[in-house]
Amino acid sequence: MTDSEKAVAAAPNVTDSDLYVSGIPHGRLAEIRRTPGLAWHPYGDDGFWAVCRHSDVKTVSKNSDTFSSAIGHTNLWDLEADALEARRSLIDTDAPDHTRLRRLIAASFTPKNIKRWEQTVRDITVELLDEFAATGSGDWVDMVAAPLPIKVILNMLGVPLEDADYLVELSNYLVEGTGEQQSIPPDAFGNTTELRLLPFNSPASHALFEYGAKLAEQRRRDPRDDLVTALVQAEDAGDRLGPSEFRNLFHLLVFAGNETTRTALSHGAMALANFSDQWNRVLTNPDLVPSATEEILRWATPVMHMRRTARTATELAGTAIEAGQKVVMWYSSANFDETVFADPHQFDAGRSDNRHFAFGGGGPHFCLGAFLARLEVTVLLEEMIKRRMVLRQDGEPVRAPSNFVHGVLSVQMSTVEVSPQ
Amino acid sequence: MTDDDMTDDGSVRIVVDGTRCIGAGQCEMLAPDHFRVDDDSALAEFVGQDSLPITEAETLIDRCPSGALSIAPSD
Ligand code: HEM
Ligand code: SF4
Questions:
Q1: Which of A116, A234, A317, B11 is 20 to 30 A removed from A23 (C-alpha atoms)?
Q2: Is A12 a member of any domain?
Q3: pTM for this one?
Q4: Residue A421 domain-assigned?
């Protein structure tokens, strides 16, 4: 049978951004999962293989020799070659460059080194939670979920307190850059670079690069106990980060940990409000905090997909893949795969053996910030338990029209009085 | 792996391939008694004195994102 004769299942559309305003299209993803082989999903003038089963996502993710991150882009659309080069960071690099870069910074993100930031995370969390509790109700995203991770990462990077607001502003413009509309002109912040050469096509990226370079210069002269110092000093067998590597990495750290963790903290709060029996379980048995943390990550699936590109012709789930074709791993499907997760649409704070792919399906690109993200969710749960805080969700959340980040733009929450034990 | 890799009670030891490990720390999280990720090199080491039951070892090998873990050949 030739390729053209082979019947290929066409996937129902799961990329239309508007779908996501009412949440993950679970029904469509389940349909793709159930269809034998891989489904071809049209996209632009071409398309991609939609990889939706847990086991297939893992195969693609771990097989980075065949499924490249460096070809094209790791998002659905391709970047022009010069733009890809200018914007290339850890996430769209293959071995051996990737291994080298990742090893230069991995030490700062090991479980023990992340643990050193626990008090910082706690101080920030306590301040935000107490403020929320004092107000009694409000937009959880704006008041807790968004400021928490950005304050943490700025603190870790060593950004001086007085600059934090500026960086938060830049980060918000970047978020805009992931959508269709930008509210700032191309030459904002003195930008002269063509937008397509900048991450998120945003002039805010230029400003972030400049800021990062300035901070790096300061830390080179005057080292401190922070991440920027660790990055400028990072050295492995005489190897150092180049200037373009540093600025893309600085940018990645400011952005990668924010949108994602904010999303986890938003869906997490909604789950705790809406599955009150599950939150009660955690309140009465704090030993469930670790499993509740993992369940929040699965439930939230902040990053819904990542793309790879086949370096060579290969086969997956019995379907032939041609060299150069896009292969997209849908974590939003794998994390609800009924063959792996019993009752996947139940939020289960005590779920055991939770093999979720919120941080990716494994392989060399496995989320660098996984332990930091876990720490932030864990500390939030611990501090909520201490306050015996019970949340109520007031109305529907406003979801981001994005097929990439499972974003919540706003959600009204109130604190409900709990009877002391 | 072969039967030779196992001790009499079916337990095994694990080796870390330092050229593949990305310091992701999953091993340390799942089996803190057996693994330590070095804070400077970001490389994992198998530090346990004791060997692990084969099923546990297989889970760890499966969960290591970079494929750096394997069963140690017994000597
Ligand atoms: C709940 C929060 C988070 C989620 C759900 C998340 C998710 C992800 C995912 C899905 C990937 C891609 C994995 C792959 O391609 O196999 C990734 C990579 C990455 N994440 Fe996270 N992330 C989170 C928090 C963070 C934080 C807090 C940081 C850092 C401060 C961070 C830094 C990175 C970096 C640098 C990469 C690229 C790693 C590489 O390519 O080697 N992330 N993350
Ligand atoms: S899980 Fe694998 S990659 Fe991560 S530290 Fe352990 S050996 Fe290294």
A1: A317
A2: yes
A3: 0.91
A4: no
Q: Whole-angstrom Cα distance, residue A151 to residue A33?
A: 39
Q: Give how many domains chain A has, as a whole number.
A: 1
Name the average pLDDT for chain A: 90
* Spatial separation of the C-alpha atoms in residues A203 and A255, rounded to whole Å: 14
Cα three-residue angle A97-A99-A102, rounded to 5 degrees: 105
Q: Please, which pLDDT band fits residue A238 given cuts at 50, 70 and 90? A: low
Q: From the DSSP assignment, how many helices (H) and strands (E) are in chain B?
A: 2, 6
Q: What share of chain B is helix, strand, coil (3-state, %, to 5)?
A: 25, 20, 55
Q: What is the CATH number of the domain that holds A95?
A: 1.10.630.10
Tokens 């600025």 correspond to A247
Query: Is residue A97 in some structural domain?
Result: yes
Q: Give strand pairing partners of A48.
A: A41, A326
User: What pLDDT does residue A257 have?
Assistant: 82
CATH number assigned to the domain with residue range B3-71, chosen from the 4 options 3.40.50.620, 3.30.365.10, 3.40.50.150, 3.30.70.20: 3.30.70.20
Whether the predicted pLDDT of A167 surpasses 70? yes
Chain B contact present for A100, CB below 8 A: no
**Measured distance CA(A350)–CA(A294) in Å, rounded:** 9
The region of weakest confidence among A2-11, A121-130, A141-150, B63-72 is A2-11
Domain residue spans of chain B: 3-71
Structural domain including A152 reads 3-416
Residues shown for chain B: 75
Q: Express each pLDDT in B11-24 by its tens digit.
A: 888 999 888 888 87
Residue A372 CA to residue A369 CA, distance in Å, equals 5
Question: For residue A26, is pLDDT > 50?
Answer: yes
Helices (H), B1-75: 26-30, 54-63
A contacts of B56 (beta carbons < 8 Å): none
Q: Is the pLDDT of residue A2 over 70?
A: no
Determine the pLDDT at residue A85.
79
Q: Could you tell me if B24 lies within 8 Å of chain A, comparing CB atoms?
A: yes
Is residue B14 within 8 angstroms of chain A, CB to CB?
A: no
Q: Could you tell me the end-to-end alpha-carbon distance of chain A, in angstroms, rounded to an integer?
A: 69
Tokens of A270: 């909604």
Residues 6+ apart with CB under 8 A from B29: A111, A371
What average pLDDT does range B43-60 have in this prediction? Answer: 84
Asked whether the predicted pLDDT for residue A284 surpasses 90, the reply is: yes
Nearest to A110 among B37, B63, B64 (CB): B37
Contacts with A103 from chain B: Cβ below 8 Å: 22-23, 42
Ligand 1 atom, smallest distance to A252 CA: 35
Average pLDDT of the residues in A80-88: 79
- Identify the closest residue of chain A to B23 by CA–CA distance: A106
